[in-house]
Design brief:
Helix content is 89%, strand content 0%. The protein is mainly α and 139 residues long. Helix 1 runs antiparallel to helix 2 and helix 2 packs antiparallel against helix 3. It is rod-shaped and about 70 Å long.
């Protein structure tokens, strides 16, 4: 079967929404990356205080909390990146399906569902990290 320009134009139109989703995910990753940087900076300060023997028991508990937050935000970033990659595969699958005149509907739908599942995981982990940061600040 021959691929027409109108078929490709239609795929491009359908790819606009996932591209906006990629933009949103990349913005979210940027915000998460900033939080990770701040966690690491705080860990350096607390570790430096420990090296100078100014560290109290509360500071060692803070190091444990920072380690937990660092792990959560790292996992959130990981799942967000996986979601972004899956969205890229969705767009690629749509174009491959149009160019090869193959029915990749189920594959594209499955990839999109996996991308949304990964984003749900990323946002849940991000929310948990924020909760830990806020609850630690209120003590």
């Amino acid at each position: 079967m021959e691929t027409h320009l109108t078929d490709i134009a239609h795929v491009i139109q359908l790819s606009v929404a996932p591209v906006f989703l990629l933009t949103a995910i990349s913005t979210l990753i940027g915000g998460m990356n900033t939080r990770l940087g701040r966690i690491i900076d705080r860990r350096r300060v607390v570790t430096e205080m420990h090296a100078n023997s100014e560290m109290a028991i509360a500071d060692s508990l803070e190091l444990l909390l920072l380690a937990r937050r660092r792990h959560l935000i790292y996992l959130a970033i990981l799942f967000a990146v996986i979601a972004a990659l899956l969205v890229c595969f969705v767009v690629a699958g749509a174009f491959i399906g149009a160019l090869m005149a193959a029915d990749l509907t189920r594959l594209v739908a499955a990839l999109f569902i996996l991308a949304m599942g990964s984003m749900i995981a990323a946002l849940s982990l991000f929310l948990r990290e924020i909760y830990l940061a806020v609850s630690a600040g209120s003590r």
